[in-house]
Automatic annotation (TrEMBL):
Protein family: Belongs to the COX15/CtaA family. Type 1 subfamily.
Major localization listed first in the record, in broad terms: membrane
A GO molecular-function annotation: heme A synthase activity
Binding site for heme: 216, 278
Gene: ctaA
Protein name as catalogued: Heme A synthase
A GO BP entry: heme A biosynthetic process
Gene Ontology CC: plasma membrane
Catalysed reaction equations from the record: Fe(II)-heme o + 2 A + H2O = Fe(II)-heme a + 2 AH2
Keywords on record: Cell membrane, Disulfide bond, Heme biosynthesis, Iron, Membrane, Metal-binding, Oxidoreductase, Transmembrane, Transmembrane helix
Length: 308
């Protein structure tokens, strides 16, 4: 049963990643209305008679989301039955289910009823949370396998300041992700046609597409320096914590690549493959921060039990 649970967890994590990429393709290709204003089928038909590229981009996204949703339902049930006393397993399985259902319902609402760009930008964030939850579930399950299905309990040896910093950084990253999704939904991806400058100026009118685009750049720039600071703090203050050093290096490498691909998106005039690579890096980066948050424990608890 536990082996099956691990296999399903891997499928759920990979599936949630595919949903993220498909959602990005739907947005970037303008295929959100490919199936009209009906849901879950296209134009009210299981097998659409009128077919377009936009229709199949949108419909395939719905099909994959539905299939992965069913896998996550089964995964959550098995997780609760198999690991009745392991809070992390139940938490991450339940979170993955909650967020995949919520993003599905929000997607349906966006199709049936028109939604503002600010609301539509939340859709990607919910998919990201589902992906991060299923990824953390995979990590916990394989940690348990490595430790003989017995949780390795240790007192967390990190300061409250580091805990708050890592959790705060994860929350701030979610805000940065939201601003990026907002840029896409507002059609402001080329609001700044140059990089790193914006139309020859550092501070354009923030009510214009230039301003919306620059807002995301500024948020992302701050994020880069925050992650660099986190890497320095962990290496200086916690030289024996290999898990934290590994996670911090992974996060820094990914945020650096994110900045690079963000510039390439502008310089290549929205090259789709570059944009999808940027989305991939965002997902991996956020998951790495969630891993660090899991390893240090909850910030409001002074003693936590963690798996290294």
């Amino acid at each position: 049963m536990k082996q099956l649970l691990r296999i399903l967890a891997v499928f759920a994590a990979v599936g949630n990643f595919i949903i993220l990429i498909q959602g990005a393709v739907v947005t970037k290709t303008g295929s959100g209305e490919g199936c009209g204003n009906t849901w879950p089928f296209c134009h009210g038909e299981v097998f659409p008679t009128y077919q377009t590229l936009e229709l199949w981009i949108e419909y395939s996204h719905r099909i994959v989301s539905g299939m992965i949703g069913l896998i996550v339902v089964v995964l959550t049930i098995l997780a609760w039955l198999t690991y009745r006393k392991h809070g992390s397993v139940k938490l991450f399985a339940s979170a993955s289910l909650f967020f995949i259902l919520l993003q599905g319902l929000m997607g349906a609402a966006a199709v049936i009823w028109s939604q503002s760009e600010a609301v539509l930008a939340l859709h990607f964030g919910l998919s990201l949370l589902s992906f991060a939850s299923s990824t953390l579930l995979c990590i916990v399950l394989f940690q348990l396998k490595r430790s003989g299905e017995t949780a390795v309990e240790e007192k967390a040896d990190v300061s409250q300041g580091l805990k708050m910093g890592i959790w705060g950084l994860a929350v701030y990253t979610y805000v940065v992700v939201y601003t990026g999704a907002y840029v896409r939904h507002m059609g402001a991806s080329l609001g700044c046609s140059q990089w790193p400058l914006c139309g020859g100026a550092w501070v354009p009118d923030m009510s214009t597409p230039q301003g919306i685009h620059l807002m995301h750049r500024l948020f992302a720039g701050v994020l880069f320096f925050l992650v660099l600071g986190l890497l320095f703090v962990i290496y200086k203050g916690y030289p024996t914590r290999r898990d934290l050093k590994r996670g911090a290096w992974f996060a820094f490498t990914l945020v650096l690549a994110q900045v690079f691909t963000g510039g390439l998106i502008v310089l290549t005039q929205l090259e789709l493959l570059i944009a999808l690579l940027h989305t991939t890096l965002i997902a991996a980066f956020f998951a790495s921060l969630c891993y660090l948050a899991m390893q240090v424990g909850l910030p409001w608890k002074r003693k936590d039990m963690i798996n290294r």
